[in-house]
Predict the structure.
Amino acid sequence: MKRTVIAGVGHYVPENVVTNNDLSKIMETSDQWIQERTGIQERRWVSAEGEDSTSGMGTKAARNAIADAGLEPKDIDFIIFAPLSPDYYFPGPGVQVQENLGIDTIGALDVRNQCSGFVYGLSVADQFIKTGMYKNVLLIGSELHSGGLDKTTRGRGVSVIFGDGAGAVVLQASDDQSKGVLTTKLHSEGKHAKELALLGPATDRWVDRIIAENDPDDMSYYPYMNGNFVFKHAVTRFQEVILEALADVNKDASDIDLLIPHQANLRISQFVQKKMGLGPDKVFNNIMKYGNTTAASIPIALSEAKQEGRVKEGDLLCLAAFGSGFTWASALIQL
Ligand code: UT7
């Protein structure tokens, strides 16, 4: 059986920085509220409609990851794209990356698991690689939230949290059994689907009625989050799914060299860090700079962690995510 190794990582974020103080000029919020509750200081939002897109940012991150792996786009033999905010309702952005990179007509799969999408995608790629079906899988997490947020005081509970950006990895087949993806754990609990969701427009709602009513107060076009409820579930599930992965490979928390949690809230990451008995140097956080970029947050963080020398060969890397669905997931990777 092959092993799945991370051959290259890359990310891309839009240039436009939006600080908490910038937001306090367009809605009733404050730098103090946002920092105290979330740890976020600033985020990137594309500056104008059409300037960038989920698929476009994903393509840029992908090019960086492919170059980091020392490969060319033609070496990729499968694409997995994890978006919560695709350019179009359908088709998903995987096919746009295939076109943008000028790759032959290889398969492109979109994984719709929101904040857990990257770890779900990693698990899917791992199965394809282990069985020998594909050699170089391009896995992308990319999100353009800013075009879909309610940027008035009405939407402040959500809009101050989310940012735009993309991250990507090239996952490669290896015969070296001492490294690679050791395990992945995936979970869902659909009874909480509406606690963090964007409900419309959708096939669940008749589009001709939506158009006829054209109701400016229809909030279903915007993401909704029951923040406290999500927070409480997140802190429990993060810890649970990390411990599940560690137990599966007979390791414990002290074996982790770096934990990269999905960047949902700095308070959640710090809570998990303390509960797991990890030192602050064992957890990577960059939500302060980018906000919550959902499926893109882990690959952006991984790319930055590599640039900063926080991950090195031989390290045990742990990835963990929780989000809409609810879905949650973890992965342990021997670098
Ligand atoms: O990525 C997927 C997973 N996501 C998560 O795990 C996120 C989990 N949840 C959270 O991170 C937190 O619940 C939030 C950061 C979203 C909210 O923090 P909170 O401490 O739960 O605040 P809250 O929603 O209970 O709101 C407290 C108060 C409310 O006012 P009242 O009712 O107490 O008068 C809100 O109206 O803060 C108000 N508020 C704001 N005030 C200033 C809500 N948003 C804002 C804002 N600025 N942006």
User: Anything to note?
Assistant: The radius of gyration is 19 Å.
